[in-house]
C-alpha cells in the first residue's frame, strides 16, 4: 500500500512549541517546557505548562471550538497505521495498514468504518529437521508481505465498524464474532457525541476537553500550516485505553481548524496513527443526505451473532477493538 500524500509527521514528543504560527489565533512565541522529572501522585498533572504556553493554548482551543461548532456534518476518508512491537517488520513499517471512512452529523450520529486492511505476515523460514525454532532478532527487518487478515474459518475478516445513529451504538467485535448493539439512554439521545471511540474527533468543547485531558503544545508537530497538541487522559476509563494522544490541527488561512491527524499511544506501548484526507473531505455538504447510509445499522456478518446489551445509565462508547 503506498504511503499517503498527506505529509504529516507525527512524532511522539513531549516538549512544547517553540514558535507556533497560528493564522486564526494570534501566535505567541514560547520556549520549550521541561517535563517534571519527579513522580507525581495520580491526581497531579504529569507536566507543567508555562503561563505563556497556556495562554496560547487557550487561544487555539477557543478557535478550535468555534470552528467545530460551525461544522454540522463532516465526511472524510482516512488511513490508519497500527504499530505493535515484535509483530511488524521492524524497519519502521506498521503491523497493520488500513483505509476507512468516517462521518459525523450533529448532534449524535457518527460512523467509523475500516474498508480495507492489510496485516503484516512474516515469511515462514524452513528449518532443518529437529532444529529449534528460530527466534526473531530485535530491530532486524523480517521478510514478509501484507495480506488480508482471515478469521479461524479462513474467511476474510471484516474491518472494524463503529456507528452511532442517535438511539443505539453498534460495534463489531471480531474476536467474538459479534455485532454488539448498545442502546443510548433517552436522556442522552440528541446530545453531542463527546465520548466517541476517537478522542478529539467529534467536536471540541474546551471545557470538556480540559476536564478530560491534561493538555500542552507539542513542538515537533507545529509549523506554519499545522498545530500540535499533546494530551494525557485524566479519567481512569480513558487511561485504560490510551496513555497519550497527539493531535495535529490543520491551520491554514480561510480553512477551519480541525484535526488532520492523530497518534494514539496505548498502555501496552503499541500505537495507532490516523491521517485524515482533509483535501477531499466534505464539510457541511449541501446534499448531506447522500451520506445517510453511514449511520445505518451495520449488517451482521455471516456466522456472527447480533448481541443487544442492556441499556446503561451512562453511555460511554468503547474504542474500536484492537
Question: What does the model show?
Answer:
The protein is mostly beta strands. The chain has one domain (51-121, 144-308): outer membrane lipoprotein receptor (LolB), chain A (Clam). It is built from three helices and 14 strands. Strands 1, 2, 3, 4, 5, 6, 7, 8, 9, 10, 11, 12, 13 and 14 form a 14-stranded mixed sheet that branches. It is globular.
Which regions have little confidence, pLDDT < 50, spanning 5+ residues? Answer: 1-41, 314-321
Structural class: mainly beta
CATH architecture: Clam
Spell the H/E element sequence: HEEEEEEEHEEHEEEEE
Q: How many β strands by DSSP?
A: 14
Q: Tell me the number of helical segments per DSSP (H or I, 4 or more residues long).
A: 3
* CATH level 1 class label: Mainly Beta
| Helix fraction bin | under 10%
The share of residues in extended strands comes to 25-35%
Shape: globular
Number of domains: 1
Cα radius of gyration in angstroms: 21 Å
Distance between the termini: 20 Å
Give me the CATH fold name.
Answer: outer membrane lipoprotein receptor (LolB), chain A
Amino acid at each position: 500500500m503506498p504511503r499517503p500524500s498527506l505529509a504529516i509527521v507525527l512524532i511522539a514528543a513531549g516538549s512544547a512549541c517553540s514558535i507556533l504560527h497560528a493564522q486564526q489565533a494570534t501566535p505567541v512565541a514560547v520556549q520549550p517546557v521541561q517535563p517534571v522529572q519527579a513522580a507525581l501522585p495520580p491526581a497531579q498533572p504529569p507536566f507543567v505548562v508555562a503561563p505563556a504556553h497556556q495562554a496560547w493554548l487557550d487561544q487555539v482551543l477557543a478557535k478550535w471550538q468555534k470552528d467545530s461548532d460551525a461544522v454540522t456534518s463532516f465526511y472524510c476518508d482516512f488511513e490508519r497505521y497500527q504499530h505493535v512491537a515484535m509483530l511488524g517488520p521492524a524497519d519502521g513499517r506498521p503491523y497493520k495498514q488500513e483505509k476507512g471512512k468516517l462521518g459525523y452529523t450533529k448532534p449524535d450520529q457518527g460512523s467509523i468504518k475500516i474498508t480495507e486492511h492489510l496485516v503484516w505476515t512474516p515469511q515462514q523460514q524452513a528449518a532443518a529437521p529437529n532444529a529449534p525454532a528460530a527466534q526473531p532478532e530485535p530491530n532486524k527487518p523480517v521478510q514478509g508481505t501484507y495480506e488480508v487478515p482471515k478469521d479461524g474459518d479462513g474467511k476474510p475478516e471484516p474491518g472494524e465498524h463503529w456507528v452511532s445513529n442517535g438511539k443505539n451504538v453498534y460495534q463489531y467485535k471480531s474476536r467474538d464474532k459479534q455485532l454488539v448493539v448498545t442502546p443510548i439512554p433517552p436522556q442522552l439521545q440528541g446530545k453531542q457525541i463527546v465520548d466517541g471511540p476517537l478522542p478529539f474527533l467529534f467536536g471540541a468543547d474546551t471545557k470538556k476537553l480540559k476536564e478530560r485531558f491534561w493538555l500542552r503544545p507539542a513542538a515537533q508537530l507545529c509549523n506554519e500550516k499545522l498545530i500540535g497538541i499533546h494530551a494525557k487522559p485524566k479519567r481512569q476509563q480513558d487511561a485504560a485505553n490510551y496513555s497519550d494522544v497527539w493531535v495535529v490541527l490543520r491551520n491554514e488561512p480561510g480553512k477551519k481548524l480541525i484535526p488532520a491527524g492523530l497518534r494514539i499511544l496505548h498502555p501496552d506501548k503499541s500505537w495507532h496513527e490516523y491521517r485524515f484526507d482533509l483535501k477531499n473531505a466534505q464539510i457541511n455538504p449541501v446534499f448531506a443526505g447522500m451520506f445517510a447510509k453511514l449511520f445505518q445499522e451495520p449488517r451482521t456478518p455471516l456466522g456472527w451473532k447480533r448481541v443487544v446489551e442492556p441499556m446503561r445509565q451512562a453511555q460511554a462508547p468503547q474504542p474500536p477493538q484492537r
